[in-house]
Write a structure and sequence with these properties.
mainly alpha; 7 helices; about 70% helix; Odorant receptor; membrane
Length: about 200
């Protein structure tokens, strides 16, 4: 994000991790002279992949309902669909409002005081920055660890049961979904697993 270099480091530091997460999700805050194409070309492949992932999750839920099964019997079906819908809405809003968000961050940073504070104000500021640091750690690191653990669990289980216990087990993807083809081949399975991991994180 342009403009952060002129702001106090103690103010900018908590934002760096958040901006890094957004950048990994290809949501960047371009400079004024960046072209629309240079900033948004990634969404030409990301949007169709995400839409396909969302539709496959939706198709699975519809199939369960049509067959008369209980949607809540599998604990992860509805929550994954809701999380995917939430991510879609939040990403769309963030992309539409990223200039406003950038202006708010820079405006608050320009008002951030580093001089002329008394002892009590310095202690309050340090305590607030410490809370922000711990909150950022909890929301980023722990949620990332849980997400990877949840996403990789079926693949690890399959590997252990096939390679160590020599059991013939069904190929299970990270998320319950329907595709226009059967996932019976190990190579197709690994490609679809990578697809779901990329779209579902």
């Amino acid at each position: 994000m342009d403009g952060l270099e002129i702001l106090p480091e103690e103010y900018v530091k908590p934002f760096r991790r958040c901006l890094e997460v957004l950048k990994r999700s290809n949501i960047m805050f371009p400079s004024e002279n960046s072209s629309f194409w240079k900033t948004n070309w990634r969404f030409l492949y990301m949007a169709p992949l995400h839409i396909m992932h969302f539709l496959s999750l939706t198709a699975y839920i519809v199939k369960i309902v049509i067959e008369g099964q209980d949607v809540f019997q599998q604990a992860n079906v509805i929550p994954m669909w809701l999380v995917t819908a939430e991510v879609t809405v939040k990403t769309t809003l963030l992309l539409m409002k990223r200039d406003d968000l950038k202006n708010v961050v820079i405006h608050l940073g320009s008002m951030w005081r580093t001089e002329g504070l008394n002892e009590e104000q310095i202690l309050l500021k340090k305590a607030a920055l410490k809370r922000v640091k711990y909150t950022e750690f909890i929301f980023y690191r722990i949620s990332l660890a849980v997400t990877w653990q949840y996403t990789m669990l079926p693949l690890v289980e399959l590997t252990v049961r096939r390679l160590i216990f020599h059991q013939d087990v069904e190929l299970q993807l990270a998320f319950a979904a329907i595709y226009p083809f059967e996932v019976t081949n190990i190579y197709i399975y690994l490609i679809m697993y990578a697809f779901q991991t990329y779209c579902g994180k």
